[in-house]
Specification:
Elements: E1 8-13, H1 16-22, H2 26-32, E2 37-43, H3 49-58, E3 63-69, E4 87-94, H4 96-100, E5 107-110, H5 126-137, E6 142-146, H6 167-180, E7 185-186, H7 188-196, H8 216-229, H9 245-262
Helix pairs in contact: 3-5, 7-8, 7-9, 8-9
Length: 266
């Protein structure tokens, strides 16, 4: 179980959806249970698997390197350190190879850009190339797949037309593509969809596709928390200060359901 480690160190090879999922709420959730964590998010807006692969081949320093932690001994500058909460620093741009050489990680996540998330032909050969490179640099890390979420039913994103402006069609397409990925799944997309089935409804996004700051991001981070620690997030009492206790319970229940079902994958 990763929570037994002195510090859980993760690297997200992502975009704005990993920003939503890990940069705001994951560290406080871990801190609530005394778990020290260092979150490294490689952010490049709208970055697809193909774009990540191109950056890799050219060794392009394209990524904003965001570091969030409640671990006070992290190397490098920090904006601040508040015990049991989090510090967040945006470092200089960095290449993927530089990040992979920056010490050992326990978990490394990959993901598809939201607009390509349900398009089967957008995954390969890029995903295999990225996985092979990550394994070469980080043989001891667990490589995982962060499943993204379908857009809100009223989303105005240009790519929503690919799915006939249907949330149900987009979500079905994402699930189909997820089944083709031979990596452990961090089911953020499923958690958001389950959350939409509750009294919270289709309110998890702030602009039709990015998660809202109150309970959208919180739900995705609950998935990450349970995936990383093996602990039932429903026993975690941390909540975003703007949330109600009822909202916390609904979001945690959706996240727990998603993780539980993902574990049943063959």
């Amino acid at each position: 179980m990763l929570s037994l480690l002195l510090v859980i160190r993760i690297l997200c090879i992502g975009n704005s959806f990993s920003w939503d999922a890990v940069e705001q709420e994951l560290v406080p959730l871990c801190a609530e249970k005394g778990i020290e964590i260092e979150v490294n998010n490689l952010y490049y807006g709208g970055c697809s698997l193909e774009q990540h692969a191109q950056f890799l081949l050219l060794d392009t320093a394209a990524y904003s390197h965001r570091v969030c932690t409640n671990h006070k001994n992290v190397a490098g500058e920090r904006e601040s350190y508040i015990p049991h909460l989090q510090s967040r620093v945006i470092r200089d741009t960095i290449s993927l190879r530089e990040a992979l050489r920056d010490g050992e990680y326990d978990v490394i996540s990959l993901q598809q850009a939201s607009h390509d998330s349900g398009i089967r032909g957008s995954y390969e050969p890029w995903l295999d190339m990225l996985v092979d490179t990550v394994r070469a640099y980080q043989p001891n890390a667990q490589i995982c797949w962060m499943q993204t979420w379908a857009y809100s039913a009223d989303a105005k994103h240009w790519a929503f037309a690919r799915y006939h402006n249907s949330q149900a069609e987009m979500w079905d397409s994402i699930q189909t593509c997820t089944r083709l990925v031979k990596l452990p799944i961090i089911p953020c997309g499923a958690a958001i969809q389950y959350g939409r089935e509750t009294k919270l409804g289709d309110t998890f996004c702030r602009d039709g596709y990015h998660l809202n700051y109150k309970y959208g991001r919180y739900t995705a981070s609950c998935v990450w928390y349970e995936f990383l620690t093996g602990k039932d997030v429903r026993n975690n009492h941390y909540k975003n200060p703007e949330m109600t206790c009822k909202q916390r319970r609904l979001c945690q229940k959706a996240a727990h359901r998603a993780v539980k079902e993902a574990k049943k994958r063959p």
